[in-house]
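Readers outside the structure-tokenisation community will struggle with the description of the input data as it stands. What matters is that the chain and its backbone geometry are given together, residue for residue. For illustration, here is how one protein appears when written out as sequence plus structure tokens:

…
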Amino acid sequence: RRKEIVMLYRLLILLIVILDLLVIINVLSGSADTGHKLLWTVIIVLLPVVGLVLYYFLGRDPRDRDITRSI
């Protein structure tokens, strides 16, 4: 039972790391200025789960949102 829980935590951590990397790539490839990109990258690195949620709701540039919706 303990091994299953440990494996579940590892998968969860891996999922969070992958999502963080994808969002950081999205931040850095966006049209925002350098300061905006740096701020969001630091927030996502320091607060991985909260940073993802905050960036999704608050940080994305509207111009970038239109591009991602059309894909």
In short: The chain has a mean pLDDT of 87. Residues 2-29 form the longest helix (28 residues). The CA atoms of residues 16 and 49 lie 7 Å apart.
